[in-house]
Amino acid sequence: MAGFDKRVSSLEEAMAGIESGMTVIAGGFGLCGIPENLIGEIQRRGVKDLSVYSNNCGVDGFGLGLLLEDRQISTIYASYVGENALFEQQMLEGDIEVVLTPQGTLAEKMRAGGAGIPAFYTATGYGTPIGEGKEVREFNGRHYILEESVVGDFAIVKGWKADRYGNVVYRDTARNFNPLAATAGKITVVEVEEIVEPGELTPDQVHTPGIYVDRIIQGSFEKRIEKRTVHQG
Description:
Distance between the termini: 55 Å
Structural class: alpha/beta
CATH architecture: 3-Layer(aba) Sandwich
Number of helices: 6
Strand content: 25-35%
CATH class: Alpha Beta
CATH topology: Glutaconate Coenzyme A-transferase
Number of domains: 1
Order of helices and strands: HEHEHEHEHEEEEEEHEEE
Helix content: 10-25%
C-alpha cells in the first residue's frame, strides 16, 4: 500500500495493528454484506476482550459468530440477538455484555462518530430501559435522551466494488450499515468482490469516498441464507 493506492495483498496486512481490548465496528445485517474474511482473520489472530458494534452477531459458526467460539468479544452493542444460539447462551450466562441498541440509534452512533459529532439527542428509548441513566432534555414538548456516538479503533466493511484509491460501491441491501461503519473507524478496512481501475466508477456511483478508507482487499465470499424456508408440496 503506497500513497493513494489503498490495496493490500493479504488478510494479515489488512488487519495489521489490531490488538486485544480494541473497539471494532462491523458492517452488515444478518448475513447480508458482512466482512466475513476480515472477521476470519480476527479469529485467527486470537485477539480478546473486543468491544464490537454491529447490528447483530452473525450465526453459529459464521460471521461474527466465529468470535464467540473462543470468547473474543467481551461487549457487543447490537440491535438483536437473532438466530445465534451461542450468542443467546453467552448473554444469558453473563459471559458477554450485550448492550441492546435500537437500530436507528446504532446507525446514528456510527454516522455521528464519522461526522465528528460526539453525541446526539433522540426520542427513541425515552421512558424505557434504553434511556435509564441517560441525560434527558425536552424540545418542543417532546423528551429526548442523549446518546454518545462511536469511533472504533477498526471498522471492517464489506463492499461490492472499489478502485485502488478506496472509493467503494455497495450492492443493493448489502449496503445496510456498511457506509456508516466505514466513516467511523480510526482504521477502516474494506473487503470487496472486485477491484477496478480508477475512472471505472463514476462519481455518482460511489457510496463511500476513498478519503474514509485506509485499506482495500479483494476477497471471495460464501453466499449463505440465514434461514431457509422450503415449501412443502
